[in-house]
Design goal:
Radius of gyration: 13 Å
Structural class: alpha+beta
Order of helices and strands: HEEEEH
Number of strands: 4
Largest sheet: 4 strands, antiparallel
């Protein structure tokens, strides 16, 4: 990954993380592969993805669509 693309990815991850954190999520480690990076909330397992194609980067996933509900995740595990 070249330096320009790494900076773009880092900026997208910060934007996505801010959006998820505002909704109460606590994110785990980012996992990056070609054209995509993803993580999840360590409390409710909501997913968060950033895609960085050449044309238009995207942020999506349940971590930016809904509030964190850690009790829901605990209930599923029980």
């Amino acid at each position: 990954m070249n330096a320009g693309l790494a900076r773009q990815l880092a900026a997208l991850q910060r934007i996505a993380a801010f959006s998820a954190t505002v909704r109460g999520h606590e994110l785990g480690e980012w996992h990056t592969r070609k054209g995509c990076s993803s993580t999840h909330c360590i409390r409710c397992r909501a997913q968060l993805r950033v895609r960085f194609p050449a044309i238009q980067p995207e942020v999506d996933g349940t971590a930016v669509e809904r509030l964190c509900h850690p009790l829901t995740a605990a209930g599923k595990a029980a």
